[in-house]
User: Fold this.
Amino acid sequence: MWGAVGALAAAVGPGLGSILVDTLGWRWAFFINVPPAIWALIRARTQIPAERRTGRVANVDLIGVALLIVGMGALTAAVIAFGEHAASAQVGWLSAALGVVCILLFVFWANFQEEPALDLSLFANRTYSAVNLATLAFGIAFTMMFFGFFFFMTGIWKYSLPMAGVAVTPGPLLVIPVAMLSGRAAARVGHRPFLIGGSLLVAAGGVWQAIVPGVEPSYVLHWLPSQLVTGIGVGMALPSFSGAAVASLGPSRFGVGSAVNQALRQFGSVVGVALTVVIAGGNHFDLTRFQTLAQTYAGFAVLAALLCLPVKTRPGP
Assistant:
């Protein structure tokens, strides 16, 4: 259900967002987040039972959070710096070094904290570690695929932004039924077949997009098939990542286990955006750059499939 609802949002979001940006300006892509955030706060306050909200408040590991923010931010900045031009290479190396140092400092810090920002003991579980590494790789692939679509539609086929928003809709809409069906099936047979199969379908969509579409628009013949394939793949894989991440944890660790998984997926999205910007090349975007972009996200999707091989969540008899 979580995957299906997310897919519905992904289907509605680009169309609505592109219309807002095209008519009211890019700032409205951020303003639109405020009303649902306020609604969520009110609903959480009024609907979550009081006994769920009045327990012991955990200490916030502010130093750990700061180290993670700086470390991941620096690593992302390094990706962008390396891709710009030779003069940025020094900045890239400095950013990469800062990022690695901050991550290592966090690992050292977390080992001495009772309630660290990220509980590293979760990764002692082999399945949990594999799922989260795969989630990171899939997050990169998914974001590159999504942003690459808009770069291609507006930059190569010269679609307007609202038209591109409508054209992206079939894939996410297909995710909704697939996510619900695959989620139920994964509960019976385990998550690994859906994680690997879904990731490979996303990779196949990337290969198609790298080979078939040309500079002449042909949406139904040259683009829609890849939309349908990747929609099925995302519907199989995305909810299964969330389910597999907590399937091997005890109930008391569902919350933190799921939170870490979502955080890594978001970090994968950040890296995916950075790589897309580097490969797209700003105002120099052309068909060759898009093909490189599609090949790259297909590679990350294959990596996600390989990382899922050790996953074992098949229910016992």
Residues 109 and 176 are 41 Å apart (CA to CA). Residues 61-116 form one domain. The mean pLDDT is 87.
